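Narrative of accomplishments. A recurring question from our advisory board has been how the design workflow behaves on a single, concrete structure rather than in aggregate. To address it, we present the structure tokens for one chain from the evaluation set, followed by the sequence designed for it. No filtering or post-editing was applied between the two.
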């Protein structure tokens, strides 16, 4: 899917579209937050974005795979992602459900095949959405300009859980926009990426660059239509 097609038929637009007439699904993500050792915020965002890419590219999500129907139904409707938190026994119960755990430097995120909006498995439905406020012990390093970067809007305040979902949206739009050869190269490299807050002086340039842009539907925390993430993959740059 080209970036132009992505913008015209974006599952993240705030306006009502044909996608709203389809049954609605959600992609559950669970981040492990132990009291004694919570993950760093940026690492949690990056791990969530990679988790989305991992499940999109997993053989169970493709063709006749066991998750393929759910993935197709989810992608035909609004693209919703909800991040919940778990610790201890909650995390162990979540790990027992079908899904994929992706590990970062300090973060663990488990992604699950999509479920109906009102049909969450009970062991996931009981997990809390709130309480995902995380911090970086020290400022993240400058992003490598030769690698994919998911740029966050510097003017928006988002909880870590909300930002994790938005980073996942950005990664997904980049994945859709890439040709198959570039997708394979990214996957084979282990989906390297960075999530950074854009410098205020660059944000306008990024949003008008033609790169994939997430406009939030406004279900939680921020106003409908807000630009949240620009997916800056080297293969999608115009230069």
């Amino acid at each position: 899917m080209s970036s132009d097609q992505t913008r015209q038929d974006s599952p993240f637009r705030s306006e009502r579209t044909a996608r709203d007439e389809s049954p609605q699904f959600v992609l559950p993500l669970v981040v492990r937050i132990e009291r004694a050792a919570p993950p760093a915020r940026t690492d949690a965002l990056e791990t969530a974005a990679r988790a989305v890419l991992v499940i999109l590219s997993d053989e169970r999500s493709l063709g006749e795979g066991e998750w393929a129907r759910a993935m197709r139904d989810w992608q035909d409707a609004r693209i919703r992602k909800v991040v919940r938190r778990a610790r201890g026994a909650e995390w162990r119960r979540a790990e027992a459900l079908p899904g994929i755990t992706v590990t970062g430097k300090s973060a663990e995120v488990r992604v699950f095949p999509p479920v109906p909006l009102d049909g969450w498995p009970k062991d996931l439905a009981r997990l809390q959405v709130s309480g995902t406020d995380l911090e970086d012990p020290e400022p993240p390093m400058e992003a490598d300009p030769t690698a994919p970067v998911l740029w966050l809007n510097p003017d928006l305040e988002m909880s870590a859980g909300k930002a994790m979902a938005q980073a996942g949206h950005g990664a997904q739009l980049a994945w859709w926009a890439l040709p198959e050869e570039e997708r394979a190269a990214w996957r084979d490299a282990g989906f390297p990426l960075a999530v950074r807050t854009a410098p205020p002086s660059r944000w306008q340039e990024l949003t008008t660059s033609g790169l994939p842009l997430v406009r939030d539907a406004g279900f939680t925390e921020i106003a409908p239509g807000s630009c949240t993430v620009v997916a800056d993959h080297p293969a999608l740059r115009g230069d």
